[in-house]
Amino acid sequence: MHKDQIISQLIKEKIITISPDKPFTYASGMLSPIYTDLRLTVSYPELREMIASDLANLIAKEFPEATIIGGVATAGIPHAAWVADKLHLPMIYVRPKPKDHGKGRQIEGRFTKDDKIVLIDDLITTGGSVLNAVKATEKDGGHVIGVSSIFTYYLPDAKENFKKANIKYAPLLSYPELLKKENESGHISSDQYDVLKTWHEDPWAWGKKFEK
């Protein structure tokens, strides 16, 4: 596994951005002092190779019965393709919503009700997007046995959402690991470390101080 190397490169290439005073707004409406733009990983061959290799090994270990790898549009698609290639498995991908033309598909690729599908996304914050992809896949007759991602913030909301959906989740990297590495690397000050740790403990409460 290349966890330390991957985290180090995410930091080095500024794929992770920290802004405690001017927080970022996530799709869920949550405010955060950190933004992780994993879409940038596709531009770094060595980095994406390490990610694909580690994700493939992780999925083989956690979901050995998987018969199809699915990518969640759009950021999960390239990583799903690389992982499917390494595992020599078929691939599908899931759109955010059905197409408004042609056959109106939301799921692209072929699968049967007997297939066991693992969906891959780049990042999990609250889990909303990927769990919507799970629902869409199952609505079309697919059987999703689990979800994986490059990174997760491991927020309480996500844990609760996956628990309610009864979906197993196996991420490659987590926020606590990232925070530890950032602290050890000297890229953040002790004050920034405290802000990042406080946000993680209760992100919604942390964001309230920026409300007008």
TrEMBL record:
Pfam families: Pribosyltran (PF00156). Its EC number is 2.4.2.10. Orotate binds at T125. It comes from the Bacteria. InterPro entries: OPRT, Or_phspho_trans_dom, PRTase-like, PRTase_dom. The keyword Heme does not apply. Coiled coil: none annotated. It is an enzyme of class 2 (transferase). 5-phospho-alpha-D-ribose 1-diphosphate binds at R95, K99, H101, D121, D122, L123, I124, T125, T126, G127, G128, S129. Residues 65-147 form the Phosphoribosyltransferase domain. One of its GO terms (molecular function) is magnesium ion binding. Keywords: Glycosyltransferase, Magnesium, Pyrimidine biosynthesis, Transferase. It catalyses: orotidine 5'-phosphate + diphosphate = orotate + 5-phospho-alpha-D-ribose 1-diphosphate. Its cofactor is Mg(2+). GO terms for biological process: 'de novo' UMP biosynthetic process; pyrimidine nucleobase biosynthetic process. SUPFAM superfamilies: PRTase-like. The keyword Glycosyltransferase applies. Pathway: Pyrimidine metabolism; UMP biosynthesis via de novo pathway; UMP from orotate: step 1/2. Catalyzes the transfer of a ribosyl phosphate group from 5-phosphoribose 1-diphosphate to orotate, leading to the formation of orotidine monophosphate (OMP). Homodimer. Belongs to the purine/pyrimidine phosphoribosyltransferase family. PyrE subfamily. This is Orotate phosphoribosyltransferase.
